[in-house]
Amino acid sequence: xxxxxxxxxxxxxxxxxxxxxxxxxxxxxxxxxxxxxxxxxxxxxxxxxxxxxxxxxxxxxxxxxxxxxxxxxxxxxxxxxxxxxxxxxxxxxxxxxxxxxxxxxxxxxxxxxxxxxxxxxxxxxxxxxxxxxxxxxxxxxxxxxxxxxxxxxxxxxxxxxxxxxxxxxxxxxxxxxxxxxxxxxxxxxxxxxxxxxxxxxxxxxxxxxxxxxxxxxxxxxxxxxxxx
Length: 228
Ligand code: G3P
Hints:
Blueprint: E1 2-6, H1 10-19, E2 24-26, H2 29-35, H3 39-49, E3 55-59, H4 65-79, E4 83-88, H5 91-102, E5 107-112, H6 115-123, E6 128-131, H7 133-138, H8 143-156, E7 162-165, H9 171-180, E8 184-187, H10 189-194, H11 199-216
Parallel strand pairs: 1-2, 1-8, 2-3, 3-4, 4-5, 5-6, 6-7, 7-8
Helix pairs in contact: 4-5, 6-8, 8-9
The chain binds SN-glycerol-3-phosphate (G3P).
The site of SN-glycerol-3-phosphate has 11 residues, from helix 7.
């Protein structure tokens, strides 16, 4: 399962990239607003930092297919290869996905709340469809189940579109979809960091360190045992 970072915060992106195996960054207008900077400049900084070939998902704002296509072309010209054009799943968005994918442009269908939205976006040629797991949970649906259904439907109908599940608030939501085998998830830095944190692990590490220190001395490592 690919892991992406759902933020436009450069410090957060650097912190996660430093440790985690990551395939790219996803953004949306609300995420960009949180940074309070010129969105294009911020996206360029993110592109300059992430490894060559990493995915960068950038959302369009336009409301007609014609304008979405123009906006997509502009985004690609500014942010380069492996930029995925995020398009919400409304009428004109689906039309734009169909046209852009026929031109070989990578699109990510976003703001997905129902399995049929995911399926139609898949038929329109989107590379990824992004169901909003936690937002679904918050309105009384089972976000994980919706993501699973979309994943199954795409497979059953032999569509190549992948699920990029988004909107996570806890590690259990991520774990369940990882076990199920969805192709990708995107989550905020704090959720990604929580994926490996465990108090019992910290206690075990502490015990190992104390035992080694009582054997060879405080602050020593194997390197200190090198023959001089
Ligand atoms: O990528 C979509 C995602 O950003 C929505 O997440 O946390 O606003 O529900 P959230």
